[in-house]
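Batch job 17 of 40 flagged for manual review because the log was empty.
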Amino acid sequence: RHATTMAASVEVVKPRGQYDEVVVHPLVLLSVVDHFRRVEEDDSEDKRVVGVLLGEYRKGRLDVTSSFAVPFEEDENDASIWFLDHSYLEKMSGMFRRINAKEKVVGWYSTGPKIRTNDVDIHELFTDYHPNPAFVIVDVRPDNVGIPTSAYRLENEIRDDGTQKEEKTFVHVPSSIEAFEAEEIGVEHLLRDVKDNTVSTLATQVAEKITSLQGLERRLVEIKRYMDLVVDGTLPVNHEIMGLLQDSFNLLPNLNLEDYVKAFAVKTNDMMLVVYLSSLIRSVVALHDLINNKRAMKEAEQAADAAAAAKANPKKEKEGPETGKDKEEDKENAKAKK
């Protein structure tokens, strides 16, 4: 009943073709984080938030340019019990359509951070808005490394052996984060307040390199976990994933080649030489600053001692210049003494 009412009140997007990529814009990420933080203050940290994604289809990709939050509740013990406010969704989508008619309802988002059992039922609800809605999980955890978005679409899966009936499952879709020119300007102004200008460029590059390596480590651990599950028989063999892993391994360099080992050693030695020279120069500069500091402290101590001595033995100040009469008197006194 709710689905029929919803489809009647909201404009259904006509299919224009399948999308092969989902592009999330910065405004969506900011809205999702703000939604999560507002809900997190009153509820537990494990609770997730759900909202609607707005955007348009462009040349084989789905641009998600805006979003809005939707009241959502679910039972933590029973995944089949959940509530999504249809009336609020219809009112908000109608107001957004008045502001920008190009933006249609293209899917929904969740803070996950993983797919849950009731997500298929929630996804079916949005098929009245879009023939193939997108499901985007936005990871709002601060320790997350890498792109915080994961996009999926629902497809019918049929086992090759025919042991099971046709079932619907989420299929991963490549996702990226891009911005229009106006959005880039806004993000740059926002980063000016967030970024610490006192940190040097070298420190920033090192931090970015560390973050990249941490992200690579997490991906490798995830691949290892998947392969262990396949070996144990918990998960079926996915030949597409195996092909992608084989392509990745084929791109790795052959470390047994003598020319490569020599070139790698030369490159490493050159870099270590630069590091050694930098450390040596840094030590010399530090020693030079230490010597200058010692000299400055010694001069300050001498000046303090001179001031203390002058204060202990004050000299009589002269009242004025001597006159000619005073000089004659001094001469007569000197003759009398002789």
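Reviewer: the log was empty due to a logging misconfiguration, but the result itself is present. The first helix runs from residue 2 to 9. Unflagging and moving on to job 18.
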